[in-house]
Amino acid sequence: MEAIGSQSLLSFSSNRCTTVFYSKTCAEKARINGRLTIVAQGMLAPRKFMRRRRKEVIFKDASDEARQRNWWRMMMEIEQLGSAVQVLRNQRTDKKALPRDLVLGTLMRFKQLKKWGIVSEILEWLRTQHWWDFSEMDFLMLITAYGKLGDFNKAERVLKYMNKKGYTPSVISHTALMEAYGKAGEYSQAEAIFYRMKASGPEPSPLTYQIILKLFVEGNKFGEAEAVFQSLLNEERAPFTPDQKMFHMMIYMYRKAGNYNQARKIFAQMAERGIPQSTITFNSLMSFETSYKEVSNIYDQMQRSGLRPDVVSYTLLISAYGKARREDEALAVFEEMLDAGVRPTCKAYNVLLDAFAISGMVEQAKTVFKCMRRDKVDPDLCSYATMISAYVNASDMDGAEKFFRRLKEDGFKPNAVVYGTLMKGYAKANNLERVMRVYERMRVQGVEANQAIYTTIMDVHGKNSDFGTAVVWFKEMGARGFPPDQKAKNILLSLAKTPEEQNEANELMENGTSDLSEPMRSKSRESDDDNYDEGVVGKVNSFPEREAKSDSKESRGSKYLYLDDQSDDDDEEEENDYESVSVEEKEELLFANRLVDCTSGD
Protein backbone atom coordinates (compact mmCIF):
# COMPACT_ATOMS: atom_id res chain seq x y z
CA MET A 1 0.00 0.00 0.00
CA GLU A 2 1.24 3.44 -0.82
CA ALA A 3 1.29 6.25 1.65
CA ILE A 4 -0.99 9.29 1.23
CA GLY A 5 1.00 12.43 1.90
CA SER A 6 3.09 11.99 5.00
CA GLN A 7 0.71 9.48 6.54
CA SER A 8 0.32 5.79 6.07
CA LEU A 9 -2.90 4.39 4.71
CA LEU A 10 -3.21 2.79 8.12
CA SER A 11 -3.86 6.10 9.88
CA PHE A 12 -7.59 5.76 9.35
CA SER A 13 -9.49 8.14 11.59
CA SER A 14 -12.99 6.98 10.78
CA ASN A 15 -13.90 6.33 7.19
CA ARG A 16 -10.69 6.20 5.16
CA CYS A 17 -10.66 2.47 5.10
CA THR A 18 -13.56 0.87 3.26
CA THR A 19 -14.04 -2.35 1.40
CA VAL A 20 -11.83 -0.99 -1.37
CA PHE A 21 -8.99 -2.94 0.29
CA TYR A 22 -10.73 -6.13 -0.76
CA SER A 23 -11.14 -5.14 -4.38
CA LYS A 24 -8.15 -7.11 -5.61
CA THR A 25 -8.97 -10.42 -4.03
CA CYS A 26 -12.54 -10.86 -2.86
CA ALA A 27 -14.99 -12.86 -4.89
CA GLU A 28 -18.39 -12.28 -3.37
CA LYS A 29 -20.43 -10.40 -0.80
CA ALA A 30 -22.70 -11.73 1.92
CA ARG A 31 -24.79 -10.30 4.72
CA ILE A 32 -23.53 -11.35 8.14
CA ASN A 33 -25.27 -10.28 11.37
CA GLY A 34 -27.29 -7.74 9.42
CA ARG A 35 -24.21 -6.03 7.98
CA LEU A 36 -23.11 -5.98 4.37
CA THR A 37 -19.68 -7.58 4.59
CA ILE A 38 -17.12 -9.17 2.33
CA VAL A 39 -16.78 -12.93 2.34
CA ALA A 40 -13.03 -13.24 2.19
CA GLN A 41 -12.72 -16.02 -0.32
CA GLY A 42 -9.55 -14.69 -1.95
CA MET A 43 -8.00 -12.55 0.74
CA LEU A 44 -4.51 -13.15 2.12
CA ALA A 45 -3.21 -14.38 -1.21
CA PRO A 46 0.14 -16.16 -0.81
CA ARG A 47 3.25 -14.00 -1.22
CA LYS A 48 6.46 -15.25 -2.74
CA PHE A 49 8.50 -14.53 0.37
CA MET A 50 6.22 -16.87 2.36
CA ARG A 51 7.42 -19.84 0.36
CA ARG A 52 9.97 -21.74 2.35
CA ARG A 53 13.18 -22.10 0.38
CA ARG A 54 15.80 -24.63 1.17
CA LYS A 55 18.97 -22.96 2.36
CA GLU A 56 22.00 -23.63 0.22
CA VAL A 57 25.17 -24.28 2.19
CA ILE A 58 28.56 -23.99 0.53
CA PHE A 59 31.37 -26.14 1.94
CA LYS A 60 35.10 -25.58 1.51
CA ASP A 61 35.79 -29.19 0.62
CA ALA A 62 34.64 -32.74 1.28
CA SER A 63 36.20 -32.91 4.74
CA ASP A 64 34.56 -29.64 5.74
CA GLU A 65 31.21 -30.96 4.56
CA ALA A 66 31.63 -34.18 6.56
CA ARG A 67 32.59 -32.22 9.67
CA GLN A 68 29.65 -29.82 9.37
CA ARG A 69 27.12 -32.57 8.75
CA ASN A 70 28.42 -34.54 11.70
CA TRP A 71 27.99 -31.47 13.92
CA TRP A 72 24.43 -30.94 12.69
CA ARG A 73 23.57 -34.58 13.45
CA MET A 74 25.12 -34.23 16.89
CA MET A 75 23.13 -31.07 17.65
CA MET A 76 19.88 -32.72 16.54
CA GLU A 77 20.60 -35.69 18.77
CA ILE A 78 21.24 -33.43 21.76
CA GLU A 79 18.00 -31.56 21.07
CA GLN A 80 16.06 -34.81 20.92
CA LEU A 81 17.60 -36.26 24.08
CA GLY A 82 17.57 -33.00 26.01
CA SER A 83 21.03 -33.91 27.30
CA ALA A 84 24.49 -33.37 25.83
CA VAL A 85 27.07 -35.32 27.83
CA GLN A 86 26.35 -38.79 26.49
CA VAL A 87 26.27 -37.49 22.92
CA LEU A 88 29.61 -35.74 23.38
CA ARG A 89 31.11 -38.85 24.91
CA ASN A 90 30.09 -40.83 21.85
CA GLN A 91 31.94 -38.28 19.69
CA ARG A 92 35.25 -39.22 21.29
CA THR A 93 37.11 -41.89 19.40
CA ASP A 94 39.99 -43.85 20.91
CA LYS A 95 39.72 -41.65 24.02
CA LYS A 96 41.00 -38.67 22.06
CA ALA A 97 40.13 -35.14 23.09
CA LEU A 98 37.21 -33.54 21.31
CA PRO A 99 38.18 -30.74 18.90
CA ARG A 100 38.06 -27.40 20.70
CA ASP A 101 36.05 -25.73 17.94
CA LEU A 102 33.39 -28.46 18.17
CA VAL A 103 33.00 -27.94 21.93
CA LEU A 104 32.99 -24.15 21.71
CA GLY A 105 30.60 -24.19 18.74
CA THR A 106 28.20 -26.42 20.66
CA LEU A 107 28.36 -24.21 23.74
CA MET A 108 27.85 -21.07 21.67
CA ARG A 109 24.86 -22.49 19.84
CA PHE A 110 23.05 -23.54 23.00
CA LYS A 111 23.95 -20.20 24.58
CA GLN A 112 22.32 -18.43 21.64
CA LEU A 113 19.27 -20.69 22.00
CA LYS A 114 19.20 -19.80 25.70
CA LYS A 115 19.25 -23.47 26.67
CA TRP A 116 21.13 -22.80 29.86
CA GLY A 117 20.50 -26.23 31.34
CA ILE A 118 22.45 -27.87 28.52
CA VAL A 119 25.19 -25.20 28.73
CA SER A 120 25.69 -25.85 32.46
CA GLU A 121 25.63 -29.63 31.89
CA ILE A 122 28.38 -29.42 29.26
CA LEU A 123 30.54 -27.14 31.41
CA GLU A 124 30.19 -29.30 34.53
CA TRP A 125 31.24 -32.29 32.45
CA LEU A 126 34.23 -30.40 31.01
CA ARG A 127 35.42 -29.64 34.55
CA THR A 128 36.00 -33.37 35.04
CA GLN A 129 37.86 -33.92 31.74
CA HIS A 130 41.66 -33.97 31.94
CA TRP A 131 41.98 -33.00 28.28
CA TRP A 132 40.09 -29.72 28.74
CA ASP A 133 41.81 -26.73 30.31
CA PHE A 134 38.96 -25.25 32.36
CA SER A 135 39.75 -21.55 32.41
CA GLU A 136 38.36 -18.49 34.16
CA MET A 137 36.08 -17.78 31.21
CA ASP A 138 34.61 -21.27 31.56
CA PHE A 139 33.82 -20.55 35.20
CA LEU A 140 32.22 -17.24 34.23
CA MET A 141 30.05 -18.93 31.63
CA LEU A 142 29.06 -21.61 34.16
CA ILE A 143 28.04 -19.10 36.81
CA THR A 144 26.19 -17.13 34.12
CA ALA A 145 24.24 -20.27 33.16
CA TYR A 146 23.26 -20.88 36.79
CA GLY A 147 22.26 -17.24 37.03
CA LYS A 148 19.93 -17.58 34.04
CA LEU A 149 18.49 -20.77 35.56
CA GLY A 150 17.91 -19.05 38.90
CA ASP A 151 19.99 -21.67 40.74
CA PHE A 152 21.65 -19.39 43.28
CA ASN A 153 23.02 -22.27 45.37
CA LYS A 154 25.15 -23.58 42.50
CA ALA A 155 26.05 -20.05 41.40
CA GLU A 156 27.24 -19.29 44.94
CA ARG A 157 29.22 -22.52 45.03
CA VAL A 158 31.03 -21.71 41.76
CA LEU A 159 31.79 -18.17 42.93
CA LYS A 160 33.30 -19.45 46.20
CA TYR A 161 35.43 -21.94 44.28
CA MET A 162 36.67 -19.15 41.99
CA ASN A 163 37.61 -17.05 45.03
CA LYS A 164 39.40 -20.03 46.54
CA LYS A 165 41.41 -20.47 43.34
CA GLY A 166 42.48 -16.84 43.48
CA TYR A 167 40.50 -15.46 40.56
CA THR A 168 39.90 -11.70 40.75
CA PRO A 169 36.29 -10.79 41.61
CA SER A 170 34.50 -10.11 38.32
CA VAL A 171 31.48 -7.98 37.51
CA ILE A 172 30.25 -10.87 35.34
CA SER A 173 30.27 -13.39 38.19
CA HIS A 174 28.64 -11.01 40.68
CA THR A 175 26.00 -9.96 38.16
CA ALA A 176 25.25 -13.61 37.44
CA LEU A 177 24.87 -14.36 41.16
CA MET A 178 22.60 -11.34 41.55
CA GLU A 179 20.47 -12.56 38.66
CA ALA A 180 20.32 -16.09 40.10
CA TYR A 181 18.80 -14.76 43.32
CA GLY A 182 16.38 -12.58 41.38
CA LYS A 183 15.26 -15.43 39.12
CA ALA A 184 14.54 -17.50 42.24
CA GLY A 185 12.38 -14.69 43.66
CA GLU A 186 14.96 -13.71 46.28
CA TYR A 187 14.76 -10.04 45.36
CA SER A 188 16.15 -8.72 48.64
CA GLN A 189 19.29 -10.85 48.23
CA ALA A 190 19.72 -9.63 44.65
CA GLU A 191 19.32 -6.04 45.84
CA ALA A 192 21.92 -6.58 48.57
CA ILE A 193 24.47 -7.89 46.05
CA PHE A 194 23.82 -4.91 43.77
CA TYR A 195 24.39 -2.33 46.49
CA ARG A 196 27.42 -4.24 47.79
CA MET A 197 28.88 -4.02 44.29
CA LYS A 198 28.24 -0.27 44.25
CA ALA A 199 29.86 0.16 47.67
CA SER A 200 32.90 -2.10 47.47
CA GLY A 201 33.13 -3.38 43.89
CA PRO A 202 33.36 -4.70 41.38
CA GLU A 203 31.74 -1.64 39.83
CA PRO A 204 28.34 -2.52 38.28
CA SER A 205 28.26 -2.46 34.49
CA PRO A 206 25.38 -1.19 32.32
CA LEU A 207 24.28 -4.82 32.02
CA THR A 208 24.18 -5.07 35.83
CA TYR A 209 21.88 -2.05 35.94
CA GLN A 210 19.68 -3.50 33.21
CA ILE A 211 19.30 -6.76 35.11
CA ILE A 212 18.64 -5.17 38.52
CA LEU A 213 16.00 -2.92 36.97
CA LYS A 214 14.40 -5.95 35.39
CA LEU A 215 14.45 -7.87 38.69
CA PHE A 216 12.91 -4.95 40.57
CA VAL A 217 10.13 -4.64 37.99
CA GLU A 218 9.46 -8.39 37.99
CA GLY A 219 9.22 -8.28 41.79
CA ASN A 220 6.90 -5.23 41.67
CA LYS A 221 9.51 -3.19 43.54
CA PHE A 222 8.71 -0.14 41.46
CA GLY A 223 10.04 2.41 43.95
CA GLU A 224 13.45 0.74 44.05
CA ALA A 225 13.60 0.54 40.26
CA GLU A 226 12.70 4.20 39.93
CA ALA A 227 15.37 5.17 42.48
CA VAL A 228 18.09 3.30 40.57
CA PHE A 229 17.01 4.78 37.25
CA GLN A 230 16.75 8.33 38.57
CA SER A 231 20.19 8.05 40.18
CA LEU A 232 21.67 7.35 36.76
CA LEU A 233 19.53 9.99 35.11
CA ASN A 234 20.11 12.91 37.45
CA GLU A 235 23.22 12.38 39.56
CA GLU A 236 26.32 14.21 38.32
CA ARG A 237 28.64 11.46 39.54
CA ALA A 238 26.69 8.66 37.88
CA PRO A 239 29.10 6.24 36.13
CA PHE A 240 27.07 6.45 32.92
CA THR A 241 23.70 7.58 31.63
CA PRO A 242 20.76 5.20 31.16
CA ASP A 243 20.78 3.45 27.82
CA GLN A 244 17.95 2.55 25.50
CA LYS A 245 17.15 -0.73 27.23
CA MET A 246 16.89 0.95 30.62
CA PHE A 247 14.41 3.45 29.19
CA HIS A 248 12.45 0.56 27.69
CA MET A 249 12.38 -1.12 31.07
CA MET A 250 11.02 2.00 32.75
CA ILE A 251 8.34 2.44 30.09
CA TYR A 252 7.32 -1.16 30.72
CA MET A 253 7.38 -0.63 34.49
CA TYR A 254 5.05 2.36 34.35
CA ARG A 255 2.79 0.46 31.98
CA LYS A 256 2.72 -2.48 34.40
CA ALA A 257 1.92 -0.08 37.24
CA GLY A 258 -0.86 1.51 35.18
CA ASN A 259 0.87 4.91 35.13
CA TYR A 260 0.57 5.60 31.42
CA ASN A 261 1.26 9.33 31.70
CA GLN A 262 4.63 8.66 33.31
CA ALA A 263 5.41 6.08 30.62
CA ARG A 264 4.79 8.75 28.00
CA LYS A 265 7.07 11.16 29.88
CA ILE A 266 9.88 8.61 29.84
CA PHE A 267 9.30 8.20 26.10
CA ALA A 268 9.61 11.97 25.65
CA GLN A 269 12.79 12.06 27.77
CA MET A 270 14.45 9.64 25.37
CA ALA A 271 14.24 12.21 22.59
CA GLU A 272 15.29 15.06 24.90
CA ARG A 273 18.42 13.19 26.01
CA GLY A 274 19.34 11.91 22.58
CA ILE A 275 18.59 8.27 23.34
CA PRO A 276 17.76 6.56 20.03
CA GLN A 277 14.20 5.30 19.82
CA SER A 278 13.66 1.94 18.15
CA THR A 279 10.70 0.03 16.82
CA ILE A 280 10.51 -1.63 20.23
CA THR A 281 10.15 1.78 21.89
CA PHE A 282 7.09 2.59 19.83
CA ASN A 283 5.73 -0.93 20.27
CA SER A 284 5.88 -0.50 24.02
CA LEU A 285 3.75 2.64 23.75
CA MET A 286 1.30 1.00 21.39
CA SER A 287 0.87 -1.94 23.75
CA PHE A 288 -0.95 -0.01 26.46
CA GLU A 289 -3.11 2.28 24.32
CA THR A 290 -6.76 1.23 24.20
CA SER A 291 -7.96 3.49 21.39
CA TYR A 292 -7.27 2.39 17.84
CA LYS A 293 -6.79 6.06 16.93
CA GLU A 294 -3.99 6.44 19.47
CA VAL A 295 -2.34 3.20 18.34
CA SER A 296 -2.57 4.35 14.72
CA ASN A 297 -1.04 7.74 15.60
CA ILE A 298 1.93 6.09 17.34
CA TYR A 299 2.32 3.76 14.35
CA ASP A 300 2.45 6.79 12.01
CA GLN A 301 4.91 8.56 14.30
CA MET A 302 7.16 5.50 14.18
CA GLN A 303 7.12 5.49 10.38
CA ARG A 304 7.81 9.21 10.20
CA SER A 305 10.85 8.57 12.40
CA GLY A 306 12.22 6.35 9.65
CA LEU A 307 11.66 3.10 11.55
CA ARG A 308 10.22 0.01 9.91
CA PRO A 309 7.35 -1.71 11.71
CA ASP A 310 8.02 -5.29 12.74
CA VAL A 311 5.57 -8.15 13.23
CA VAL A 312 4.74 -6.88 16.74
CA SER A 313 3.91 -3.39 15.46
CA TYR A 314 1.50 -4.80 12.90
CA THR A 315 -0.01 -7.21 15.39
CA LEU A 316 -0.70 -4.46 17.91
CA LEU A 317 -2.36 -2.32 15.26
CA ILE A 318 -4.45 -5.26 14.02
CA SER A 319 -5.51 -5.95 17.59
CA ALA A 320 -6.55 -2.32 18.14
CA TYR A 321 -8.74 -2.32 15.06
CA GLY A 322 -10.15 -5.73 15.90
CA LYS A 323 -11.19 -4.67 19.40
CA ALA A 324 -12.90 -1.63 17.87
CA ARG A 325 -14.80 -3.99 15.50
CA ARG A 326 -13.12 -2.44 12.48
CA GLU A 327 -12.45 -5.65 10.61
CA ASP A 328 -11.75 -3.89 7.30
CA GLU A 329 -8.84 -1.98 8.77
CA ALA A 330 -7.57 -5.04 10.64
CA LEU A 331 -7.40 -7.03 7.42
CA ALA A 332 -5.86 -4.08 5.55
CA VAL A 333 -3.04 -3.89 8.12
CA PHE A 334 -2.42 -7.62 7.81
CA GLU A 335 -2.28 -7.32 4.03
CA GLU A 336 0.16 -4.41 4.35
CA MET A 337 2.34 -6.53 6.63
CA LEU A 338 2.47 -9.24 3.97
CA ASP A 339 3.18 -6.68 1.24
CA ALA A 340 6.06 -5.33 3.36
CA GLY A 341 7.63 -8.78 3.43
CA VAL A 342 7.10 -9.29 7.17
CA ARG A 343 6.37 -12.93 7.98
CA PRO A 344 3.36 -13.18 10.34
CA THR A 345 3.65 -15.27 13.48
CA CYS A 346 1.01 -17.53 14.94
CA LYS A 347 0.09 -14.67 17.27
CA ALA A 348 -0.47 -12.30 14.37
CA TYR A 349 -2.83 -14.78 12.74
CA ASN A 350 -4.62 -15.30 16.05
CA VAL A 351 -5.19 -11.57 16.46
CA LEU A 352 -6.67 -11.31 12.96
CA LEU A 353 -8.79 -14.36 13.73
CA ASP A 354 -10.03 -12.60 16.85
CA ALA A 355 -10.93 -9.48 14.88
CA PHE A 356 -13.35 -11.53 12.79
CA ALA A 357 -14.46 -13.74 15.67
CA ILE A 358 -15.64 -10.77 17.75
CA SER A 359 -18.27 -9.98 15.13
CA GLY A 360 -19.13 -13.62 14.40
CA MET A 361 -17.69 -13.43 10.87
CA VAL A 362 -17.20 -17.17 10.56
CA GLU A 363 -16.36 -17.36 6.86
CA GLN A 364 -13.58 -14.81 7.17
CA ALA A 365 -12.25 -16.52 10.29
CA LYS A 366 -12.24 -19.88 8.51
CA THR A 367 -10.26 -18.34 5.64
CA VAL A 368 -7.64 -16.99 8.05
CA PHE A 369 -7.44 -20.38 9.77
CA LYS A 370 -6.88 -22.13 6.43
CA CYS A 371 -4.22 -19.58 5.46
CA MET A 372 -2.28 -20.44 8.61
CA ARG A 373 -1.92 -24.03 7.50
CA ARG A 374 -1.17 -23.01 3.92
CA ASP A 375 1.63 -20.72 5.13
CA LYS A 376 3.11 -23.49 7.34
CA VAL A 377 2.07 -21.77 10.58
CA ASP A 378 0.77 -24.34 13.04
CA PRO A 379 -2.43 -23.18 14.79
CA ASP A 380 -2.20 -23.40 18.58
CA LEU A 381 -4.92 -23.89 21.19
CA CYS A 382 -5.62 -20.16 21.08
CA SER A 383 -6.37 -20.42 17.35
CA TYR A 384 -8.92 -23.17 17.95
CA ALA A 385 -10.49 -21.34 20.89
CA THR A 386 -10.87 -18.22 18.77
CA MET A 387 -12.55 -20.19 15.98
CA ILE A 388 -15.02 -21.62 18.51
CA SER A 389 -15.63 -18.05 19.70
CA ALA A 390 -16.43 -17.02 16.11
CA TYR A 391 -19.14 -19.68 15.88
CA VAL A 392 -20.48 -18.72 19.30
CA ASN A 393 -20.70 -15.03 18.36
CA ALA A 394 -22.49 -16.04 15.15
CA SER A 395 -24.99 -18.02 17.30
CA ASP A 396 -23.97 -21.22 15.50
CA MET A 397 -23.63 -23.67 18.37
CA ASP A 398 -23.64 -26.68 16.05
CA GLY A 399 -20.58 -25.26 14.31
CA ALA A 400 -18.97 -24.51 17.67
CA GLU A 401 -19.50 -28.09 18.84
CA LYS A 402 -18.07 -29.47 15.60
CA PHE A 403 -14.96 -27.31 15.93
CA PHE A 404 -14.68 -28.33 19.56
CA ARG A 405 -14.52 -31.96 18.44
CA ARG A 406 -11.99 -31.02 15.76
CA LEU A 407 -9.83 -29.37 18.43
CA LYS A 408 -9.55 -32.68 20.27
CA GLU A 409 -9.12 -34.72 17.10
CA ASP A 410 -6.11 -32.52 16.27
CA GLY A 411 -4.48 -33.44 19.57
CA PHE A 412 -5.32 -30.43 21.75
CA LYS A 413 -6.89 -30.54 25.21
CA PRO A 414 -9.60 -27.97 25.96
CA ASN A 415 -9.04 -25.71 28.94
CA ALA A 416 -11.36 -23.47 30.96
CA VAL A 417 -11.36 -20.82 28.22
CA VAL A 418 -12.63 -23.27 25.61
CA TYR A 419 -15.30 -24.73 27.88
CA GLY A 420 -16.27 -21.23 29.00
CA THR A 421 -16.71 -20.11 25.39
CA LEU A 422 -19.16 -22.95 24.76
CA MET A 423 -21.01 -22.16 27.97
CA LYS A 424 -21.27 -18.50 26.99
CA GLY A 425 -22.84 -19.52 23.67
CA TYR A 426 -25.48 -21.67 25.32
CA ALA A 427 -26.10 -18.94 27.92
CA LYS A 428 -26.81 -16.48 25.10
CA ALA A 429 -29.39 -18.94 23.79
CA ASN A 430 -30.80 -19.27 27.35
CA ASN A 431 -30.20 -23.01 27.24
CA LEU A 432 -29.60 -23.73 30.93
CA GLU A 433 -29.47 -27.51 30.45
CA ARG A 434 -26.64 -27.35 27.90
CA VAL A 435 -24.70 -24.82 30.00
CA MET A 436 -24.75 -27.15 32.98
CA ARG A 437 -23.94 -30.16 30.83
CA VAL A 438 -20.78 -28.48 29.53
CA TYR A 439 -19.90 -27.46 33.09
CA GLU A 440 -20.22 -31.02 34.36
CA ARG A 441 -18.13 -32.36 31.49
CA MET A 442 -15.45 -29.83 32.31
CA ARG A 443 -15.39 -30.81 35.99
CA VAL A 444 -15.29 -34.53 35.18
CA GLN A 445 -12.12 -33.88 33.16
CA GLY A 446 -10.50 -32.07 36.08
CA VAL A 447 -10.63 -28.58 34.57
CA GLU A 448 -11.21 -25.94 37.24
CA ALA A 449 -13.74 -23.22 36.50
CA ASN A 450 -12.63 -19.59 36.50
CA GLN A 451 -14.45 -16.47 37.59
CA ALA A 452 -16.15 -15.78 34.27
CA ILE A 453 -17.57 -19.32 34.09
CA TYR A 454 -19.28 -18.81 37.45
CA THR A 455 -20.59 -15.45 36.25
CA THR A 456 -21.90 -17.10 33.06
CA ILE A 457 -23.76 -19.71 35.14
CA MET A 458 -25.21 -16.97 37.33
CA ASP A 459 -26.25 -15.09 34.20
CA VAL A 460 -28.14 -18.01 32.69
CA HIS A 461 -29.91 -18.66 36.01
CA GLY A 462 -30.72 -14.96 36.12
CA LYS A 463 -32.41 -15.19 32.73
CA ASN A 464 -34.63 -17.85 34.27
CA SER A 465 -35.37 -15.57 37.28
CA ASP A 466 -33.92 -18.09 39.73
CA PHE A 467 -32.67 -15.96 42.63
CA GLY A 468 -32.01 -18.90 44.97
CA THR A 469 -29.73 -20.76 42.57
CA ALA A 470 -27.95 -17.52 41.63
CA VAL A 471 -27.15 -16.97 45.33
CA VAL A 472 -25.73 -20.49 45.59
CA TRP A 473 -23.44 -19.90 42.61
CA PHE A 474 -22.49 -16.47 43.95
CA LYS A 475 -21.34 -18.12 47.17
CA GLU A 476 -19.62 -20.92 45.25
CA MET A 477 -17.62 -18.34 43.31
CA GLY A 478 -16.30 -16.82 46.53
CA ALA A 479 -15.66 -20.18 48.14
CA ARG A 480 -13.51 -21.15 45.15
CA GLY A 481 -11.31 -18.11 45.68
CA PHE A 482 -12.79 -15.80 43.03
CA PRO A 483 -14.14 -12.48 44.38
CA PRO A 484 -17.44 -11.87 42.56
CA ASP A 485 -17.04 -9.30 39.81
CA GLN A 486 -19.36 -6.39 39.15
CA LYS A 487 -21.36 -8.33 36.58
CA ALA A 488 -22.09 -11.09 39.10
CA LYS A 489 -23.17 -8.50 41.66
CA ASN A 490 -25.43 -6.77 39.16
CA ILE A 491 -27.05 -10.09 38.23
CA LEU A 492 -27.74 -10.89 41.86
CA LEU A 493 -29.18 -7.44 42.58
CA SER A 494 -31.40 -7.54 39.48
CA LEU A 495 -32.89 -10.88 40.56
CA ALA A 496 -33.75 -9.72 44.08
CA LYS A 497 -37.45 -8.85 43.83
CA THR A 498 -38.85 -9.20 47.34
CA PRO A 499 -37.60 -7.17 50.33
CA GLU A 500 -36.13 -10.37 51.85
CA GLU A 501 -34.20 -11.15 48.67
CA GLN A 502 -32.97 -7.57 48.43
CA ASN A 503 -31.73 -7.67 52.02
CA GLU A 504 -29.92 -10.95 51.38
CA ALA A 505 -28.34 -9.59 48.20
CA ASN A 506 -27.23 -6.39 49.96
CA GLU A 507 -25.74 -8.44 52.80
CA LEU A 508 -23.71 -10.47 50.33
CA MET A 509 -22.56 -7.25 48.64
CA GLU A 510 -21.46 -5.70 51.95
CA ASN A 511 -19.89 -8.74 53.59
CA GLY A 512 -18.27 -10.15 50.47
CA THR A 513 -17.76 -13.87 50.67
CA SER A 514 -15.74 -14.11 53.87
CA ASP A 515 -18.60 -15.73 55.79
CA LEU A 516 -20.06 -17.78 52.99
CA SER A 517 -21.55 -21.15 53.70
CA GLU A 518 -20.05 -24.47 52.69
CA PRO A 519 -19.53 -24.49 48.93
CA MET A 520 -22.10 -26.24 46.86
CA ARG A 521 -21.22 -29.74 45.81
CA SER A 522 -21.93 -30.29 42.15
CA LYS A 523 -23.55 -33.58 41.31
CA SER A 524 -21.50 -35.40 38.77
CA ARG A 525 -23.53 -36.09 35.73
CA GLU A 526 -22.37 -38.76 33.34
CA SER A 527 -21.58 -37.29 29.98
CA ASP A 528 -23.49 -38.55 26.98
CA ASP A 529 -20.83 -37.34 24.63
CA ASP A 530 -17.50 -39.17 24.71
CA ASN A 531 -15.92 -36.39 22.66
CA TYR A 532 -15.60 -34.31 25.82
CA ASP A 533 -13.32 -36.81 27.57
CA GLU A 534 -10.14 -34.73 27.67
CA GLY A 535 -7.78 -33.51 30.39
CA VAL A 536 -6.97 -30.06 31.54
CA VAL A 537 -4.33 -27.99 29.76
CA GLY A 538 -3.90 -25.55 32.58
CA LYS A 539 -5.74 -23.48 35.11
CA VAL A 540 -6.80 -20.09 33.73
CA ASN A 541 -7.05 -17.15 36.06
CA SER A 542 -9.30 -14.86 34.08
CA PHE A 543 -11.78 -15.17 31.26
CA PRO A 544 -12.96 -11.95 29.62
CA GLU A 545 -15.81 -12.40 27.19
CA ARG A 546 -13.53 -12.26 24.18
CA GLU A 547 -10.58 -13.96 25.76
CA ALA A 548 -8.93 -16.82 23.94
CA LYS A 549 -5.65 -17.71 25.55
CA SER A 550 -3.17 -20.54 26.07
CA ASP A 551 -1.13 -22.38 23.51
CA SER A 552 -0.24 -25.95 22.79
CA LYS A 553 2.68 -25.87 25.19
CA GLU A 554 1.21 -24.17 28.21
CA SER A 555 -1.66 -22.11 29.52
CA ARG A 556 -0.24 -18.96 31.04
CA GLY A 557 -3.29 -17.13 32.31
CA SER A 558 -2.36 -13.97 30.47
CA LYS A 559 -4.57 -11.77 28.33
CA TYR A 560 -5.52 -12.90 24.85
CA LEU A 561 -3.04 -10.72 23.03
CA TYR A 562 0.08 -12.43 24.26
CA LEU A 563 3.18 -11.48 22.34
CA ASP A 564 5.75 -12.86 24.59
CA ASP A 565 6.54 -16.25 23.15
CA GLN A 566 8.54 -15.36 20.06
CA SER A 567 11.53 -16.24 22.15
CA ASP A 568 11.86 -18.32 25.27
CA ASP A 569 13.29 -15.47 27.30
CA ASP A 570 14.40 -11.89 26.98
CA ASP A 571 17.53 -12.19 29.06
CA GLU A 572 20.54 -10.18 28.10
CA GLU A 573 23.75 -11.96 27.36
CA GLU A 574 26.96 -11.29 29.29
CA GLU A 575 29.86 -9.89 27.31
CA ASN A 576 32.88 -12.16 27.54
CA ASP A 577 35.52 -13.83 25.43
CA TYR A 578 33.20 -16.63 24.44
CA GLU A 579 31.22 -14.31 22.24
CA SER A 580 33.04 -15.25 19.08
CA VAL A 581 29.75 -15.81 17.28
CA SER A 582 27.39 -12.85 16.73
CA VAL A 583 23.67 -13.45 16.17
CA GLU A 584 21.03 -10.74 15.94
CA GLU A 585 17.70 -12.06 17.23
CA LYS A 586 14.63 -9.93 16.80
CA GLU A 587 12.65 -10.16 20.05
CA GLU A 588 8.91 -9.65 20.27
CA LEU A 589 7.48 -7.03 22.53
CA LEU A 590 7.11 -8.79 25.89
CA PHE A 591 4.20 -7.42 27.72
CA ALA A 592 1.38 -8.95 29.78
CA ASN A 593 3.56 -9.61 32.80
CA ARG A 594 6.74 -9.96 30.74
CA LEU A 595 9.59 -7.55 30.06
CA VAL A 596 9.52 -5.19 27.11
CA ASP A 597 12.98 -5.36 25.63
CA CYS A 598 14.76 -4.86 22.35
CA THR A 599 17.00 -7.05 20.29
CA SER A 600 19.76 -8.85 22.10
CA GLY A 601 23.21 -9.22 20.62
CA ASP A 602 24.75 -12.53 21.62
From TrEMBL:
Residues 499-585 are annotated as: Disordered. Keywords: Repeat. SUPFAM superfamilies: HCP-like. PPR repeats lie at residues 135-169, 170-204, 243-277, 310-344, 345-379, 380-414, 415-449, 450-484. Residues 544-557 have a biased composition (Basic and acidic residues). The keyword Repeat applies. Residues 565-578 have a biased composition (Acidic residues). The keyword Repeat applies. Belongs to the PPR family. P subfamily. This is Pentatricopeptide repeat-containing protein.
